[in-house]
Every structure is written in structure tokens, then in C-alpha cells.
Input
Amino acid sequence: MISLRFKRLKIRENSITITRRIIQILAFLIVNYMILEIILPINLLSLEGLTKVLPILNSPRNPLSKGGGILEYIFFSMAEGVFPFFLIAVLLLVLLFSNRFFCGWICPIGSIQDACAAIPTKKRKIKIQTHKTLLNIKYVFIIITIIIIFPLGITKNANILFYIDFKTQLGTFAQQPIGFFSLSEFIFVYFPYLVQNIFLPAQFGALEFGGYIILIFYSLIIILSFWYPRIYCRYICPFAAISSAVTEYSFLKLARNPVKCVGRSECGICEDVCPKQIRILDEPFEFFTGRGECNLCLKCKEKCPYDAIIIKFGNV
Output
């Protein structure tokens, strides 16, 4: 009887995490619906249209979803000389109304990282100043992509011959601008390709130097995810760079109750459990986003012993 009560208490204490895990699994299977088609004798082709516009970081060449993240379609459209006003408007509306809910609850790559972090290891934190510096890496990747892709699209309307030559010089980058910075591209496309075509005795030496760099880099990112939760989301993810710049203005936010919150000296549990290493208690009571890094996993709300974390929408 005592054991049963203890289990029920644990479930209640971790109800948000359990709910999030269930949603993440369902979302992963829906986005990558071909997994379900393989397991079950059903046809889910009707989901293809949905998965192609979800604002998540999936590769357009992902054989498991046949779709991609909205950010990838935006940059691809720019590279083709079309400014995607509609896609940008959709992205902004999603971020303004749902903040980074997709990052915390739906994104397949976020789910994979959470699965790595769920393996029992001693979780580590990066020094605060180093952490703040590393947060800027993803912005550098986005700026580089814009500097290259936006002029490429302009040249298509100005000088088609120069455009063709420019695009040829860029190679794969022009077709998949986000691909080089995408862990999804590595997991779902690049690594399976290596297994099928390169990691064979006759082809082992066929991988170019750049290929080894990509293999080592993303393999290291996955390994580090066991000790540093959401390390890819924090420092590399291009979607995180765009969304973090917008979600400061989102209607959906987390706040702290100034009456209930006792501060870092007496508690600080919210900061200890935050997988993104956000300094929650350094931010205003009205709302906190960690410079747009909060992905609304609600771990802080779940573990707060004083029930001081509040979900806010609008100015309420």
C-alpha cells in the first residue's frame, strides 16, 4: 500500500514531464509518419501536407517525413529568387502565439536530445560566461546563411547567367541552406547514407575530408547531449536562433509569482532543473525567456516547491 501511494505521488510530481514525453513520442511518429506505415498496415499519405509546414527542424530530404521545417522552406524560396512573405508571416504568428512550444514539446530533434539526456548520467553545466558566449554561435550561422542566400535570390531576377554560375559554385548549400547546420539532416539523411554507401570495406576511403568533419562534429554533439541537455538547441540550431529573436515578444510566457518565489539563496530549484541553463531568477518577475532560449518544457514549474511559476498569455 505504501509503495503504491509512493508511485502515485511520483507520477503526480512528474505529471508535466510524463505528459510532455507522451506528446513528444506521438509528435515524432506523426511527423515521421512513415515509421507508423512500416509498423502498421496503414496509409498515412494524407499527413504529408501537414508535416511539410510544421515549424520544426527536419530536413526536406528526410525520408521519414518527406517534409521539412518552415525555416528551410523560407531559405530555399529565397535561394530560388522568391521572397516568402506568407511563410515568414506564418512563422511569426506561430512564434507570437505559441512561443517555443514546438521546440519543447514537438520537435523530433529536441525529443532525441531529451532521450539522450534521460539516460542516467551526472548532468553538467557550462560556466555562465562561456554559456553566454556559445549562445551566439547559432546567430553566426544564420547571419552567414542570410548573407549568402539572399543575394543569390536577387541575382536570379537581375542576371540569370550569373545566378546559375553562383548557384553552381554554392553546390549543395544552395539547395539545402540549413542542411549543414541541421542535426536532423545528419541523423535522418547523412548518417544513413554513410551506413549504406561509405561504411563498407570497398568504400571506406571514399568519404571526403569535409564529410569526416561533419561526422565527427555531430557525433560529438549527440554524445555531449548525454551530459549537457539540449546542447544542439542551445548553441547550433538555426530555428532556435530565429525563434529566440522573436519570442521575447510572444504572448505566451512564463512568469514568477513575487509573493511565492523566495529567490536563489533559499531555493533556486528552477535554475537547477532547467535543461537550457537559464538564469531564471535574474530575470523580471513579469516574465522570463532567457533571451528567448526558454522552450516551455515547464520543468521549472513542475519542480518549484512553492508553485511560483505561472503560465501567462498576453498581458494577463
